[in-house]
């Protein structure tokens, strides 16, 4: 990385009392300059407790929006405003409203990968780290509307007895992983442990040794005495894995076709240069209606409070 750029970013952070939060799926160079790298739950928590005046959020739009909802008095900047999430965009307010009309006695639990409008309509938000625990917080007789990720929804359903109606959305990155290629990799590397994200498709999940959030995948690989792992999530996470356990081998699971499809292009839209521009020009700021912030904050805060109580975050 250009040391001049790195120095400028460091100086601007000091001068403006800014913090850089980065998701595991962004480019490794950004992970290296970030103050904190984490998954959605950890980053939401960081955003809620930081005393920085500016948060530069290197993650997709709904993540920066979530930081703004939790910390409405802070300036939240996203280095590339076009960094969206097709999964979040798959659920519209009108679509959820229609579903709720069909199932009026169901409570609404939505994945954090959703727009602010959807969060504002939800009773509770969850992340891949805590989705099972969040649904389990309701008694088994409570009926649940879950969205927008169908694979995460089915994964949660396998742990609970609650009746669940699940939105038919998916992450194009995780949905495209190939179970056939995973079978071939397992034959080639019989000692390798398969670590998969719950957004991955069912045939892949059925072949996994561990299913968990990116943080859970990292924790498992770091603490395990095994040496080889097949990673069934966005390969950006391998940057952190290699930094934490340089002696182990990580094999990214390929998609069904076209290798590029295992990469989240939206996360990769951020660059170190764009992070610098974000700090220099204080762009691109996340602006939201105050009423929307208030409504969307409730189910997120409920999730954070429960996660703290359950010891999932500090
Ligand atoms: S990996 Fe999938 S769910 Fe995550 S931001 Fe990219 S498109 Fe959205």
Give a brief rundown of this model.
With 314 residues, the chain is α/β, with parallel strands linked by helices. The longest helix is centred in the last third of the chain and has 20 residues.
Which helices and strands occur, and which strands form pairs?
Blueprint lengths: L2 H14 L1 E6 L4 H6 L2 E3 L1 H10 L4 E5 L2 H10 L4 E3 L8 H4 L3 H10 L4 E5 L4 H5 L3 E3 L4 H6 L7 E4 L2 H8 L6 E3 L5 H4 L3 H10 L4 E4 L5 H5 L3 E2 L2 H10 L4 E5 L4 H8 L4 E4 L12 H4 L3 H10 L8 H20 L5
Description:
The protein has 314 residues and is of the alpha/beta class. The chain has 3 domains: 3-85 and 267-288, Rossmann fold (3-Layer(aba) Sandwich), CATH 3.40.50.10800; 87-170 and 296-309, NadA-like (Rossmann fold, 3-Layer(aba) Sandwich), CATH 3.40.50.10800; 177-254, 3-Layer(aba) Sandwich (Rossmann fold). The chain is 46% helix and 15% strand. The protein is built from 17 helices and 12 strands. β3 (54-58), α4 and β4 (75-77) form a beta-alpha-beta unit. α3 (40-49) packs parallel to α4. The protein is globular, with a radius of gyration of 19 Å. It starts with a helix and ends in a 5-residue tail after the last helix. The model has no long low-confidence stretch (mean pLDDT 96). It binds iron/sulfur cluster.
């Amino acid at each position: 990385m250009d040391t001049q750029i790195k120095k400028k970013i460091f100086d601007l952070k000091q001068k403006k009392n800014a913090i850089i939060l980065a998701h595991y799926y962004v480019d490794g160079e950004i992970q290296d300059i970030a103050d904190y790298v984490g998954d959605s739950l950890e980053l939401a928590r960081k955003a809620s407790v930081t005393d920085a005046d500016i948060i530069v959020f290197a993650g997709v739009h709904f993540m920066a929006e979530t930081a703004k909802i939790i910390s409405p008095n802070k300036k939240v900047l996203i280095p590339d405003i076009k960094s969206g999430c097709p999964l979040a965009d798959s659920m519209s307010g009108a679509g959820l409203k229609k579903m709720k009309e069909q199932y009026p006695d169901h409570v609404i639990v939505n994945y954090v990968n959703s727009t602010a409008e959807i969060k504002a309509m939800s009773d509770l938000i969850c992340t891949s780290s805590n989705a099972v625990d969040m649904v389990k917080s309701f008694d088994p007789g409570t009926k649940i509307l879950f969205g927008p990720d169908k694979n995460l929804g089915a994964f949660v359903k396998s742990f609970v007895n609650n009746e669940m109606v699940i939105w038919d959305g998916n992450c194009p990155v995780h949905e495209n992983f190939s179970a056939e290629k995973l079978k071939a990799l397992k034959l080639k590397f019989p000692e390798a442990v398969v670590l998969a994200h719950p957004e991955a498709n069912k045939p892949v999940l059925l072949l996994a040794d561990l299913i968990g959030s990116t943080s859970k995948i990292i924790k498992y690989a770091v603490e395990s005495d095994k040496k080889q792992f097949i990673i069934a999530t966005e390969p950006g996470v391998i940057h952190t894995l290699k930094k934490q356990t340089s002696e182990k081998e990580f094999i990214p699971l390929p998609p069904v076709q076209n290798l590029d499809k295992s990469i989240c292009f939206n996360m990769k839209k951020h660059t170190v240069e764009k992070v610098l521009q974000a700090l220099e020009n204080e762009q691109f700021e996340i602006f939201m209606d105050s009423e929307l912030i208030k409504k969307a904050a409730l189910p997120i805060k409920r999730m954070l409070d429960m996660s703290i109580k359950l010891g999932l975050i500090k």
